[in-house]
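Q: What does the assembly look like in three dimensions?
Context provided by user:
Components: two
Sequences:
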Amino acid sequence: MALTGVEIFKLLPKTNCKKCGFPTCLAFAMQLASRKVSLDACPDVSDAAKATLGEASAPPIRPITLGAGAKAVKLGEETVLFRHEKKFVNPCAFAIGIKDTDDAALQDKKIAECLTSEIERVGQKLKVDAIAIINESGDKGKFETLAKKVAEKAGDVPAIVCSSNTDAASAALAVFKDKKALLYGATMANVVEMAALAKANGAALGVTASNLDELADLTEKAKAAGIEDIVMDSGAKKAKDILEHNTMIRRAAIKKGNKSVGFPIINFMMRDDNMLETLMIGLGIAKYSSIVVLSSAEKWKNLVTFTLRQNIYTDPQVPMQVQQKIYEIGTPAPNSPLIVTTNFSLTYFIVAGEVENSKVSTWLAVMDCEGLSVLTAWAAGKFTAGKIAAFIKESGIEDKISNKELIIPGYVAILSGALEEKLDGWKITVGPREANAIPTYLKSRSA
Amino acid sequence: MAFTLPKETYTGKVYPVTIGSGDKTVTFGGENVLPFHSFEGTTPYRPLVAYEIMDVPPTEWPDKVKEPYAAVSDNPVKWAKYCETELKAKAIALRLYGTHPDNGDKSAADAVIVVKDVLAAINVPLIIIGSNHAEKDTDVLVKVSEAAKGHTCIIGKAQEANYKTIAASAMANGHMLIAMSELDINLSKQLNIMITQLGFTKEKIIIDPMCSALGYGLEYTYTVMERIRLAALTQNDTTMQQPMLGDVGMYVWKIKEVTASEETLPEWGALTERGIAWEAQTAASLMLSGAELLIMRHPEAVKAVESFIDELM
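A: Here is the predicted structure of the complete assembly.
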C-alpha cells in the first residue's frame, strides 16, 4: 500500500541536507509519495527504511519489459482506473498468435503480418508488438520447429511461448534464451518447473488460473520460486468475465495494494468472427489488458485497434497535437482557398473533416499553438496577428498560391485588421465560427 | 489464498427509459453499476442499437454504407420497413436531414408527413432527430413532436440555443428528449438542469455529450461519458443519471479512414472491413464508457456490436 508523504518523511534521515535536490526531507518525501522521484536520490537513508519504502514505493502494478533491443515493449506500471485521473502508462501490447498446428503458409503469413504492421499516425509509430507461439498440438517437436522459424524470421520481435507442457516449453523457450521472452502456461500443477525454466532462460513467467483465488495463489507460488516478472491470465475467456476479472485485479492492485495481483494481465481475444475479435481487442485496451493475443493482424484491423489504443493511452491532461504545417486537403491548386487554424488535434480533425466534406480542395495551415483550441490559443497570446503572420510567411505557402487571401476562424475576427497590417499585400477573410459551417462556406465561395 | 473481491458500492442509478407504444416497447438504461459491471449490481437492460435512416436519399454517405440500402433509401418508409423486417432493427432513428437550409430546406409540414408515414409503417420505436440547424429544428421538431403524439418517441436534439421550445413540445406530446451539449461534463449537467427547470421530467432526458469518431477525438467523448457515469453512480448526482446517446454513424461515416480507397492508401487495408470495424469499434468503446443508446448505419457493424453485447451481458 502506498505511503503518504508524512509516513515517508518519518522514515527519512530528517537532516535536510539537500543532497537529494530538494530543500527539506519533507519536500523530498512529498515527491516520493507522488512517485515523481526515486529513493536513490537520498544518500543517507537507512537499509531498514529502504526496505520499507522500496516495498511501499514500488508501483502497484509491476513494470515488466518484454523482449530485448529496439523492439522491446514495456508493460504494466499503471496507477489509475480511469483515464481522466492520470495517463494510462504503458499501452496494451498486441501479440499475434501462431499455432504449431497452423500450416506453414499461414504461419509465414502471420509472421509477415506482424513484421509489416507498422503504421504512422499523429506522429506515433504503431505496430503489432509481439508474437505468441502456441503449442496447440501438445507436441514438442512441432513447437520447437515453430519457435525456430519465428526466431529466424522475426528474431527481434518479443516472443511469448505458450505451452503447459514443460518439455515442449523447455525446447521452444531455449530458442529465445536471454531475449526476455514470456513463458506462458504455468498452472498449479507445473508452476515450480515452469518457474525454473523461466529463470534459466531469462524469461518472464505467465501464469494461467481458472479463477481469481487460484490466480493469487499462483503468483505467490511463482514468487516463492524466485520469479519477479509475472504476467497473469485469470482464466476469463468471455467478454463479461474478462471485464469482471480485469476490473477486480486492477482495483485490488491499485486501491487495495494487493501485491499478489500487482502484475500485467494477458488476455486471449481470438474469435471465429473477426469483427467480434476486433471489438474484444478494444475491450482489452479500454479495460486493463497489458497484452492481448489476436488470431490475425489484417491491415484494416490494425488501423482500427492501433487508433483506439492511441486514443485511450493519450494523456488526458495534455492536449494531443498535430504537426505544424500546411496540410493539403484534396488536391489544392494555386487558386484554392487557404485556411488557418491551430494544432489542437481535435480542432485539426474537425476542421480537416469538414473541409473534406465540402469537397473543395483547400490549403489548411495548421499553426503550432501548443495544442490549444482557437479561442484558448488566442486568449493565451499564442494565436496572435504577429505569430500568424510570421507562420504564414515562413511556411512558404506564398510560392504555391496565386491570390494572397487568408481565411481566419470566425472566433478571431478581431485579428483581421492587425493581420492585414502584418501580412502586406494579403487579403484577410473571416471564415465561419464553427467548423460545421465550413462546407456551406467553402461551397458558396467556389460557386 | 483467497482473493478478496474489491467490489464497489454505488449510491446512484441510471434511469430506465422506455420508448415505443403497444407491445413493441423497448427499455434501456436502468443499471446501478458501471457499464456491464453486472458482477456488482444490476444491469437489467441491454444497450439499444437503433438503425439510422433519413428523410432524403443519403447522397453524402460513402458508397460502402450506401450499398446495403441501395434498393430502399430513395424512400424513408421503404427504408424503415427494410430495417425492421430484414435487419431486425430494435429501433429506428429518423434523421430529418433534408430540412436543413443547406440540404434542401424541406418544410416542417414535409417532415410531419414523413414522420407520420414512417410511424404508420413500423412497429418498433422511433427516434426523431432534426438536421442540427438550431433555428430550423425548433420549427421542425415542434411540429413532428405533435404529429408523433401517442407513440412515445425520442425527440432531439435540444441544445442550449433551442432547448426551450423543443423540450416544451416533447413534454406536451409525451416524448423523451435528447439534450446535446459540446463535449464537457459541466455543460451537459447545466443543460439537463435548465431543461428540468422548465418542468421537464428528469427521467425522460437522454444525454448526448456529443459523439466523435475513433481517431477523431473519441478519447474526449469516452472520458466525458465515463465521468458522467461516475458522477451518476458514485456521487448519486441526479442531474447526470440519464442514459447516454452515442450518435455514432454520422460521425464515423465521413472521415478519411472509411472513405480512402485501397489504391491510395494500401497500408490501411480492405476498405469494406475498415469502415464496418471503424463504426463498430467507435460504438463498442462508447458503450464501455457509458452509452446505452447507439445510432448506427452499417448492418454488419450493428451485428458485430450486438454480438459483443451478447458476450458482455
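Follow-up: Chain B touches chain A through 58 residues (CB under 8 Å).
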